[in-house]
Amino acid sequence: MNKIEEAKTILTELKVPTKQQSDICCYTLLSMASLTEDNEWSDAANEWIRIHDVISFIKEHYNIEYAENSRETFRKQAMHHFRNAAFIEDNGKATNSPNYRYRLTDEMVALLRTYGSDKWESAKSEFFSTHENLISQYESKRSILKMPVRINNLDFTFSPGKHNELQKAIIEEFAPRFAPNSECLYVGDTIEKDMVKNIEKLNELGFEITLHDKMPDVVLYVAEKNWLFFIEAVTSVGPMEPKRIKEIDEMTTNVNCGKIYVTAFPDFKTFKKFSESLAWETEVWISEMPDHMIHLNGDKFIGPRN
To answer: Can you give the pTM of this predicted structure?
Structure first.
């Protein structure tokens, strides 16, 4: 293997995410270790260098030219993650200082010097004994970021993001206030599309759902009133516009429940942005004012229109 292939193998074995196994990350590792194609890994060094020096080294020794304005790309794709993995350290200067430098940690350079020898596996194990690998670190962070939500008396977690924050509010804040004792028949996650999908109940109520149909973000059913709440979180496909209501009506032609159409907004500013496109005879709920609703008709308050 050539040096770039060996660098990728090293990063793979050190369990960094796929994005940090890219060419730019491999060249960064080689530059920081001052290794050319003619060097052995046992020659690895850890002198203090700048990203500018990394770019110059790659051009001189690997004939690959990166523009000077790509320094931020190196910082975000390689340096940031390598520091999280304890591969590198900085000299503690301000990041905008001309004296700001990086180098391989002593542990990392010692590990690299064993690559290709019979000491590599034991050195790698020793490194992992004191440093959590990046894949595990990032998976742990993603788990922490996930938002717990209780749906139909069961515990779920939403992936992080504005859309799921609003869906969580719909389940935990809107439903108890305006659809008490309701059952959630459908809610999706930005990653797990059909987190809750009670197909049996939806079919029983008369839904006709094909693969091409886009369910509303949240569907709630209040059995005692035989009401269905179709709720769109505006952070996904948008608000309850006439076209959207027509689409929902087509998939619920045989549904005899009372139908209530709701658009949920995170704040009043976002509501104002979409206010002119909202359909009449729909409801508006704003998460930052959870005790109130806006009814887009004067003849009645919340309830089915059909």
So the answer is: 0.54
